[in-house]
Amino acid sequence: MITKYFSKVAVRFNPFGKEAGAVRLLLSSIPPVQRMQSTQITNQLLTESSTATPLVKITYKDKKELELDPRGHSFEELANYFDRHSRQLQIKETIENQ
């Protein structure tokens, strides 16, 4: 997963729900150096009695925001969804540097 273009990552999930595994893998795919230096990570844990819905919201360095409800999605599906814009930014960066 291409994470170097993330500026903010906000997650909201139930740690005991079906979506927890995919969200944890998504968070763990962000390198530790990037977590400390360039990417702001916000997480909120939901309880069984909570009325809020699970959410993964990523803001990219070009200010574009993508969000997705992680219920019913695997980690691969989440990664593909968020990588789509990262690949566009990578191509743009490659073209500008030539």
TrEMBL record:
GO terms for cellular component: mitochondrial large ribosomal subunit. It comes from the Eukaryota. The keyword Transport does not apply. It is found in: Mitochondrion. Keywords: Mitochondrion, Ribonucleoprotein, Ribosomal protein. The keyword Nucleotide-binding does not apply. Belongs to the mitochondrion-specific ribosomal protein mL53 family. This is Large ribosomal subunit protein mL53. The lineage of its organism: Eukaryota, Fungi, Dikarya, Ascomycota, Saccharomycotina.
